[in-house]
Amino acid sequence: MMKWNKNASSQKGRVFRSGLLSTAMLAAVLVLAVLLNLLVRAIPTKYTEFDLSEAKMYTLSDSTKALVEGLEKDVHIYYLCETGSEDAIITKLLDHYAAESGHLSWEQKDPTLYPTFAAKYGAENVSTGSLIVTCGENSTVLDAADLYEYDYTDYYTTGSASVTFGGEKQITSAIYKLTAAGQNHAYYTTNHGEQSLTDSLTDALDAQNIDAQPLDLLTSTIPEDCNLLIINAPTSDFTAGDGLVDEISQLENYLAAGGKLLLTSSVYAQTPQLDAVLAQFGLARAEGMVVEGDSSKALYNSAWSLLPDYGTPTESTALNGVNTNTHVMLSVAQGITVTETEDVTAEPLLNSSSAAYAKADIDDLTTMEREDGDTDGPFALAVWARNEDTGAEVLWIGCPNMDNEQLYQSMPGNLTFLQGCAASLVGQDVLVDTKALEAEPITVAGSTAAALGLTFVFVLPAAVLIAGAVVVLLRRRR
After folding, report:
1. Looking at the DSSP assignment, which residues form a beta bridge with residue 330?
2. Which residues pair with residue 208 across a beta bridge?
3. Which of 40, 176, 258, 270 has the smallest count of CB within 10 Å of its CB?
């Protein structure tokens, strides 16, 4: 007959209770983990995700946040993309937009499942990856090809182009245009040999809710709804004095009433009457064509095609939202001098390097090399000025061909700069530029690289092996 062992029974009971307690604790931990996971998922992603990309690819700009947070109308965005082929940059960006406001939402529409959906918005021919931004009955289409921009400025020296992401720029502009209370009106003058605004520039202005129309001052007057007057590289002067039409008086009256003027000019076209209007703001032409002596500040083998530095204005908002790491090119440019003038605030927006110089005899150039008699730089190439009494503002760019369709294909920075200038002059501060997709490479010295290699390949593995051996020996001695 087997003898009952009270101690064994008691020990089994303790083991059972201990196992039951462990199981209960494990179950509780699992339940808490699930609840915590659900709680974290309920928190907006802007509080749970961190943007570690150098260009802050997934971080909305302050302008975008202010616009989206202030929405009073519902905005819905459709992402036309096949399931499984989503662009993570775009989907995360849309999530961040939606997290900023209950008035903004988005959803994906797979073209293979909804083949006729895009046609309702006139987007039947857009490529996969495009966006449709809607607000009530109004909508705008953002083609996938326009969400990325390519800058070929350094192609001749590096053999590659830089790619920037313009998703936030395009989406924010579309939201602003669809929800803005009213439209601003810009007029560009004609009949002085001016260059017509390119389609790209008028589209960029339209994205800022600025409608641009031509204006002939010989037959019409400046409209009362003119928020911005554009004079784009005239080749002949504006009339003044005793003629049948006094265009200069119209300009002066417009500015005296607080008007805004965006002007581009050519070193080859003399316009003394028009220049006299700018002189009231302390601005004047510097003599000659600017040539860049620093090869890194000019297009490859073209010292007259300048890649200027951005200024650091404190009063003008023209550069707000502009990615100052992107290039702007001014070809055959002229400097602009600034004279201190009472009640006028002026700031340069673009500058040449100190190695630049100006060629005075532009009609008989024999060399682009520096010669005796050339004027030393640096030069201001684009200047903003404001009359503090009247509120009038002028922005003068000493280059006749910044607005160039072919140039935009290789250097989109010019378009963004002009867009920013126009937006600031009409009082807008909602401008977002593109963001670099690639971070700058980190350069490590050879000696440092060798030391790091030895550390990770030999030192750290050896330390782990030694630590493991010590632990095993200590356990065996117990």
Report:
1. 306
2. none
3. 40
Dist CA 317 CA 338 (whole Å): 19
Crossing angle (nearest 10°) for helices 272-279 and 247-256: 20
The helix/strand/coil state of 203 is: helix
Q: Contact 116/84 with Cβ under 8 angstroms? A: no
Q: How far apart are CA 98 and CA 90, in angstroms?
A: 12
Q: For residues 31 and 382, what is the distance between their CA atoms, to the nearest angstrom?
A: 64
Integer Cα distance of 378 and 352 in angstroms: 5
User: CA 50, 164, 312, 153 torsion: positive or negative?
Assistant: positive
pLDDT digits 0-9 by tens, 348-368: 999 999 999 999 888 777 788
**Tens digits of residue pLDDT in 79-109:** 999 999 898 889 999 999 999 999 999 999 9
Query: Which among 41, 146, 147 has a CA at the least distance from the CA of 93?
Result: 147
Cβ atoms 188, 215 nearer than 8 A: yes
- What are the residue ranges spanned by the domains of the chain? 42-181, 184-436
260 pairs with which residues across the strands?
393
Token pair 């002059």 is at which residue? 425
Query: If you classify domain 184-436 with CATH, what class do you get?
Result: alpha beta
* Residues near 392 by beta carbon (within 8 Å), at least 6 away in sequence: 255, 256, 257, 258, 259, 260, 261, 281, 386
Beta carbons within 10 angstroms of residue 56's beta carbon: 13
Alpha-carbon gap, residue 348 to 395, rounded angstroms:
9
Q: How far is CA 446 from CA 233, 369, 449, 455, 460, in A?
A: 52, 39, 5, 14, 20
The DSSP code for 120 is G
| Residues 421, 413: Cα–Cα separation, whole Å | 12
Both tokens of residue 407?
């140039």
Cα dist from 42 to 29, 36, 94, 187, whole Å: 20, 10, 17, 49
Q: Domain 42-181: which CATH class? A: alpha beta
How many CB atoms neighbour CB 58 within 10 A? Answer: 20
Candidate from 120-129, 150-159, 203-212, 377-386 with smallest mean pLDDT: 150-159
Angstrom distances, CA of residue 394 to CA of 226, 281, 421: 14, 8, 10
Of 368, 399, 365, 366, the closest CA to residue 382 belongs to 399
CB 187, CB 422: distance < 8 Å: no
Query: Exposed (0-12), middle (13-18) or buried (19+): which is 269, by Cβ within 10 Å?
Result: middle
Q: How many CB atoms lie within 10 A of CB 474?
A: 9
Amino acid in the structure at residue 12: K
Beta bridge partners of 393: 260, 386
